[in-house]
Design goal:
179 residues; mainly beta; globular; three-stranded antiparallel sheet; Jelly Rolls
Amino acid sequence: MAMPPNVYGMQFMPIDEQVVNTHECCAPPAIDSRQWKAPLGAFPEPIDMGDLKCTWTGERVVMPKDPAILQLRFALAKGKRLDVHLHPYPRVAFVVSGKIRVVQLATQDQPAKTREFEAGDTIVETINRYHYGEVIGSEGAVLQVWDYLPPHLPRNKDTNTVYRDAKPISKEGAREPGQ
C-alpha cells in the first residue's frame, strides 16, 4: 500500500483492520481516510471552522436532515479559474494552502460580491447562487471540501455542483465541467 504524502511534517501510517471496521460509517467514499492515522505522539491541530450557520456572503445555511457528508480534496494549479457554477446544498471548504478569490455573480436583487481566502481560512459557500473561484498569488491552492447532501443522493464529486453552461446530466447523474 502506497503511503500518502507527508502533510504538515507528519508521515501517516496504515491502521489495523479492527480500527477500520469500528469507523466504517465515518469515512467518505471519495477519500478513504480510514486507512491512515497519525503516528503516536503526533497531535492534530484543531481547525476553527468558524460559524457554519452563514455563508461567506451572510446568507443563512439550512442543513439537510440527516445529511450524507462527502469529503473532497481539490488541488488547483496557479492561475486556475473554475467554471461558473452553484451548489444546491451546503458546501464548506477549508483552504489548506494557497490563496483564492471567490466571486459571486450579480443578480437582479443583489450586486456581485468578491472575497479572497488564504491558507487556514474556512469558506461556507453560497447556496443556489452562481459563482466562480480563481487561484491567485504565486502558487496553486489546495482545498479540503465537505458537501452536506440529502442522504438519498449519489455521492460523487459533482452531485453538489451545477455548472451554469451545463448540458443535460449523464445517466450516471454526474456533470463534467463545461458539460
